[in-house]
Hints:
The protein contains 3 helices and 22 strands. It is mainly beta and 315 residues long.
Amino acid sequence: MRTFLIIIIFLLYNLNNNVQAQTKYKVLATKGLVVRSEPSLLSNAIGKLPFRSIVKVIERTDSTLVTLDNDEYIGGNWVEIEASSFYYINDRDKSTKIKGYVFDGFLEALDKGKLAMQTETISEQKFDKLEKMDCKKVFCGNAIYGLDKICPLLNNAKYHIYNDFGIIERFSNNYGQELICYQMDEDSSWRYDENDYYYYPNLNVLSMYLSNDHERYSVSTITGELVTFPGVTLPSPSGKFRFCDARDGQDRANVSFEMKDGEWYDYSTTFDFEVNNITEFYWINENEFICKVVPYNGEIKILKGKLSFWPNKKR
């Protein structure tokens, strides 16, 4: 009987640890968080994640660390993480993923809950009726083009000429962390086109199109985190939620709904099908909307949607 109880306790303990390990976290280190090859300060640094980057903890190790930060001792464990590693994060590895170990004293779990969306199909007549309730709270970023105009607006921006194109190499975010935008070696065939840089000063977003990958990457010039390309940003009346419609390299919609938690938009959701285009979108109140959606494969959908936040139950 005693052995049986020990086995149950062991299984519950490991199940609880596994749930914690699969939680997404955001980086709190304002100057970036170093990623190492092993759970030790003596191991090689293989990358650096910007402030507020989102990571997934794969496994929590038994290795502990105590560090001094702003006259405050912070303790924690080394954890194995996986995160998007786009080119400005890490100048040693050009893969799109980075996997390694970080100190979890500078991580905060995004475990308050889940942003959920419910939709229903409505008629054209009901859509027209609800459209009159539109809050008209439309906000689109105004972009600046051309490196001669963009670079002076960035912190410590450096660029050079490559194949007759001006290329932004790096700049610093508001916390002094240097962000690598471009790397080139003898084996590299990809490049940024000068005309593919957009800067949105009112949003503090620099958007870059990676020609070889046919993908656009947008980064906050304040924090260095990856953000939604601000093609169209439509906040709800009070700004608690926002609808974002970006474009990928194939000019398809990249739609997301985001919820603000304090100062930042930390929680997001999207449709459960691939979207080719949004022809119309209107907020009808703080968390409800109507839209006309063209799926990637299928006929146009006329939808009424509602956003809600489902908090996690406290243990």
